[in-house]
């Protein structure tokens, strides 16, 4: 949860010049993160409140998308797997 939240916050800072003044939708496969964006009275550490506050101030809305439907992210998360499989395949030649 914390890493996903921090990633959204950091990306929003990095691309602020592109998203400033616009409603931006961030797709994630992390359902608890999406549900927590507008949670009432959560028991979080103070830093989570700061992260969500910054995300909300930038007009970012979190939306859920299943991992298999999020093709670019799914591909990026499997690059290491593809590399590993390629090396394994070479050993069997």
From TrEMBL:
Q: Which UniProt keywords apply?
A: Endonuclease, Hydrolase, Nuclease, Nucleotidyltransferase, RNA-directed DNA polymerase, Transferase
Tell me, what is one Gene Ontology molecular-function annotation carried by this entry? endonuclease activity
Top-rank taxon: Eukaryota
In this chain the Reverse transcriptase RNase H-like domain maps to 3-51
Recorded hits in InterPro entries, A to Z, give: RT_RNaseH
What is the name of this protein?
Reverse transcriptase RNase H-like domain-containing protein
